[in-house]
């Protein structure tokens, strides 16, 4: 049933938002050279890699300097990219991932291989479900880049504190994998975005 809801909601979302998505794509390629989309390998259900779609918010090749982005001080982020990240609009192309079946609307945020390789056996349980666009961890850590910006060693803070805490929050959904929980997280996400 959740997969059917994902297909319906992602399809309707893409149709309704298509004029805005096209406009954003055009603005991105006008501001900086390169494609409007950024595709990054993430690890999905059962450890399978897939290409996660986002609007490109950094200059081409900027991810070679590291995969974490650090708040306002990250000069790799374009002007429009900063706005897209702050409003989470850069995540909208993931509706294509949901429609394809790589992701769900709700589920643990998919990580890059570097961080998945650090998971303990217990933490790898997050790979037992389809990753999602939103979850309890996304809501709790909506200001993650600002937290990283204040850290002396952002990568260490992420690995030792933020990532384990996010996985604990992921387990809350995995242990209550129901339609009511699915809608509850969607509602909480909209509420947090409007705050």
UniProtKB/TrEMBL annotation:
Record key words, sorted: Membrane, Transferase, Transmembrane, Transmembrane helix
Chain segments annotated as transmembrane: 7-30
One term of GO molecular function: phosphotransferase activity, for other substituted phosphate groups
InterPro entries reported for this sequence: Bact_transf (IPR003362)
Annotated Bacterial sugar transferase domain residues: 3-194
Signal peptide: none
Any matching Pfam family: Bac_transf
Family, as annotated: Belongs to the bacterial sugar transferase family.
Name of the protein in question: Sugar transferase involved in LPS biosynthesis (Colanic, teichoic acid)
Organism: Xylanibacter ruminicola
Organism lineage string: Bacteria, Pseudomonadati, Bacteroidota, Bacteroidia, Bacteroidales
